[in-house]
Target: DNA-binding protein
Amino acid sequence: MLYLQQIGRGLRKTDTKKNIIVIDVVDEYGAMIKACNMHTIFANSYYVPFGDIIKTDYTPGDMVVIDGLKERIERIMEVDINSFEEKYGDYLSQEQVAREYFVSTGTVTSWVKKKKIVPSVEYRFGNKSIYLFSPDDVEKYRKELNIKEHNDSTIKEDFFEFLEERDYSLSYKMPFLLAIVKHIDAIGDAKIEDVLDDYIAFYQDRLARGLQVDRSTCPYDEKMLKDRKAVQRNMLTNPFEKFERKRFLYYSKDLSVISMNHALFGQMKEEDWERVRRQMREDLRKYYDGMGGV
Model:
């Protein structure tokens, strides 16, 4: 949509403008791997350097003149104007496969390199590639690699299994999740400002008491903790992204809320919330043992 809006600005009619020159260097690709270029927009399957995008009857040798620029047509190339959405609308990207399998994109990349899984489609762009996987191949590799299927019926079990892993390279998950549980409302939303307040307060309190904030790799010092935007960016990268990748939490920038997956939220009972609070507090005590305690 943004690409179309940009082109649309040039296409507006005025008394002083006769032509628009669009330098379409490379296709635009969004998160869903959708092709978007001028030839697709105007359904013109013939590429002619300097050619009029709406003209489809050029022949080699014709002269193209645009704003005084002259160019002889030496070749006409047929291009594929079908969008990726039309051809591969139900295929999964590398990121989507990672989410489907509950692993990191790095793991999927490693599997591709080791040929544990083979992409159904590979598009090369310079020294990089875009991998796409058909639904059939996704299921095939799920069975071959004995990967558990994750869906709404397993999401609560998945959530607590994730917490039980206790994968804490830094402390972030614990105060973050405690803040989410504290501020989540009746529809499963927590205002990000409220979560951020508690999250920052946890580390500021440690500083105020002269305690070690976290391990040496943690960037939270007195200066950074005063920069709410910086802390929020960091929080949305880690730990939020770890929960979002597994589809437990989502962030709406427009609404400024962090939302729990509705299927998960609907299955959570009061004893489940207390279980989360109890584990996070216990894990914080163990994590900070040797760093002055909680």
Notes: Residues 83 and 288 are 52 Å apart (CA to CA). The first helix runs from residue 2 to 11. Residues 1-89 form one domain. The chain is about 45% helix and 10% strand.
